[in-house]
Design a protein that fits this description.
The protein has two domains: 173 residues, Rossmann fold; 195 residues, Dehydroquinate synthase-like, alpha domain (Up-down Bundle), CATH 1.20.1090. The chain has 385 residues and is of the alpha/beta class. A six-stranded parallel beta sheet has the order 1-8-5-4-2-3. The chain is built from 14 helices and eight strands.
Length: 385
């Protein structure tokens, strides 16, 4: 092992059911007394939002709170611009990202436009020309257990000018503080618990099999897979099971840390399905994951043997480990109630060519363990149909 690499895990993370009641402490430590809460349009009607609002009220911060709740399920550029403008209008001095990956991604990246109103999300060159030392402090509070965006240094935003998903990546986008509170996830419906859970699993599997050298992330990804195996189905079937809800928050966080190694072809297939066919990102991953695993394993036998071990599966030689891992993934997806087959979710044969065009342009497959062509993607989409 002679390659050069670097490791960093700087984010402060609190984990435990009921911790939201102490939110005043990290906000005070960060100098936030006029927070802007960023969420989607549905979250203010939920029990989770009321818990956060109550905690902010207890800390004496509700009267000075600004609420931006216009985030789309697959966030677009206008969401980011709108959040930055709401921050300025409210003379806010810090941001609370509350919700799933979409809300956290918008909360994270809108800070770039707050520091530099002239910055355009498509201008990746300018992104690295600035030091970004004036970003407002940011506290991330996930209400789903999937994306791991709370510990990520990137956001995925659809550029309305091109229709493509842009990955905005910079180390300064990391949250200053993260609160993982299982009590905020118990009201999440079963189908979203399942989809976000498979999203977390996909992050762990694809990060682990990425060829990028990062043994710390490999260990974290494998432990995340084990936690999904232990807790995902329980969280779907027993929504009030706080132990499993907390376990899935940890698994999602681990997946978010692990994909410092980058991801793979499942994500390159899933992103166009969200963009073109409007499928939930976690669902799109669930519909493609086992097909990509089977394709990769056919080219590199034994690739998923350690995944199978982490999931508690028994097998003989490493090649059998691939099949054990794939069967476990497919069994978990079925047990969680996710109907497989793209056609079942409204995807037509006529859309597959366009999906393959977008998939080959997506950067995630560049760290797939096996190189893929556009025709390979088209073949896999047909298998998934």
């Amino acid at each position: 092992m002679t390659a050069q690499t670097s490791f960093s895990f700087p984010t402060s993370i609190e984990c435990g059911s009921g911790l939201i009641q102490t939110i005043g402490k990290p906000l005070q430590a960060l100098g936030i007394d006029r927070p802007m809460v960023v969420c989607d349009r549905f979250l203010p009607e939920t029990e989770a939002f009321e818990k956060v609002r109550g905690a902010l009220q207890q800390a004496g911060l509700v009267e000075d709170m600004t609420l931006f709740h216009e985030v789309h399920p697959n966030p677009v550029e206008a969401d980011v611009c709108g959040a930055a403008e709401a921050f300025r209008r409210g003379t806010c001095n810090g941001i609370i990202g509350l919700g799933g990956g979409s809300a956290l991604d918008v909360a994270k990246v809108c800070r770039l436009l707050i520091e530099d109103p002239g910055f355009a999300l498509k201008d990746s060159k300018k992104l690295y020309e600035k030091a970004w030392n004036g970003l407002p402090p940011f506290v991330a509070i996930p209400t789903t257990a999937g994306t791991g965006s709370e510990v990520g240094r990137s956001s995925v935003i659809t550029l309305e000018s091109t229709g493509a998903k842009a990955v905005i990546f910079h180390p300064k986008l990391l949250a200053d503080h993260v609160i993982l509170d299982a009590s905020l996830t118990v009201s999440l419906p079963a189908h979203l618990t399942a989809a976000t859970g498979v999203d977390a699993l996909t992050h762990c599997i694809e990060s682990f099999t990425s060829p990028v050298l990062h043994p710390l992330c490999d260990g974290i990804a494998l432990e995340g897979i084990g936690m999904v195996a232990q807790h995902c189905l329980n969280a779907v079937q027993e929504p009030d099971n706080l132990e499993s809800r907390q376990g899935m928050l940890l698994a999602a966080m681990m997946g978010g840390i692990a994909f410092q190694k980058d991801l793979g072809s499942t994500h390159s297939m899933a992103h166009p399905l969200s963009n073109l066919c409007h499928l939930h990102h976690g669902l799109a991953n669930a519909l493609c994951l086992s097909a990509v695993m089977r394709w990769n394993a056919s080219k590199k036998p034994g690739l998923y043997a350690r995944v199978a071990v982490a999931a508690g599966q028994s097998f003989g030689d490493p090649a059998q480990g691939d099949q054990a891992a794939i069967q476990w993934v497919e069994g978990l997806i079925e047990a969680c109630g996710i109907a497989t087959g793209l056609a079942h979710h409204g995807v037509d044969e006529e859309q597959l060519e366009a999906l393959a065009d977008l998939a080959i342009q997506d950067p995630c497959h560049q760290t797939n363990p096996i190189s893929m062509t556009r025709d390979d993607f088209l073949t896999l989409y047909r298998q998934c149909l």
